[in-house]
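For concreteness, we quote verbatim a single protein encoded this way:
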Amino acid sequence: MKRTFRSFPIHNFPETKKQVLHWCHQSGTCVFLDNNQYDLPNSKYECLAAAGSRHEIRLDAGGALRKLQIFIDQHADWCFGHIGYGLKSETEFVANTLPDKSGFPDLFFFIPEVVVQLDEAEILIGCIDRNHEDILQEIISCTHDRYIQHSSSVSICQSVDKLTYVEQIQRIQSHILRGDCYELNYCIEFYAEQADLNPLCLYERLTSLSPNPFSAYYRIRDLYLSCASPERYMSKKADRLFSQPIKGTVRRNIQDQEEDERLKWHLSHSLKERSENVMVVDLVRNDLSRVCLPSSVQVDELFSVHTFPHLHHMISTISGKLRHDKTFADIIRATFPMGSMTGAPKKRVLELIEKYELTARSIFSGALGYITPEGDFDLNVIIRSIVYNHTQQYLSYHVGSGITGYADAEQEYAECLLKAEAIAMILKGA
């Protein structure tokens, strides 16, 4: 049977959006993707949700992409899921050796029972063997209070103390000075054990304070991801691929508009931020050239500063015309992990990350999104995210920064603590 869609008008978009989210949460497997009304190029849906699992594939690295492609071709339907950072052992042949308590597999995709597309004017419901009106009634009758629970306080620990962090950064900089690499994205994990909390409330708190264009609520049974990502990893529209790496960030001064504009100007003209940005642009161009037609890869946008609720980001856009013999699996194999989360050259920094980071990144630094029946797709970069394993009551989030030869280890550590504290404050309010 084929999935059919029916459209229904809506009159209160914020309320309907919340109802869809809470309705999704009831399913053991679900994804809720939210653009948060950003007017970004190549973004097709304001909100896109998938609930329930008709078919699914769950694999760790080692032939996973080949099996995923068979799964996609076999079902030719809407497909949602994630690619974890650990898939690097398959795409770049760098083994996964670090401990991982999150429980997330390296790869998981599913064909949903129901697909929901939502914008300010209508809700579009897609299903195979269910009644569209019945699903709509389930959504609009979903009351929020039913799912609100109080969470216990959590005690946050960190995987790396200051002394160890400074020592690791100095070792990484010695590699940079020797010419082993140019820049390396180094991350540390913050975690809590015996954490009893409500992941849905956590996501709503996170995105209310930091509404970003690639936000996502993701559930695989007892595993949850709350994500407020501003970054696109890769999208495909027809025969064209787009990647939009972020390199270069400055905090806003929302109270002082003149100072905010000055900060934005300094980010735009910073030689350091531009050099890091152009490094990742070159890396993405090289990755895309492996699956795109010769001479078709181009830089559509370079050093463009985009404004978000709390930050200004320097974003570049790279695109290319896909070769018609290349599949989704081929694209991921050629480009994953994304350069903005690794550094350059990619394979060498992946080896060094495995050597100097102390815990696995798991789903962090991976990608989450959807694939359409026609083969178009859109995947985010999983950053600014909180992972929660309900069964193990284990909560985790990573923060990091790009390390160069000129980086000050103590300043980088302070920046990590600042990023971590922002998430800790969200946990207190969840």
About this structure: The chain has a mean pLDDT of 93. The chain is about 30% helix and 30% strand. Residues 4-239+324-429 form a domain with the Anthranilate synthase fold (CATH 3.60.120.10). The longest strand covers residues 47-59.
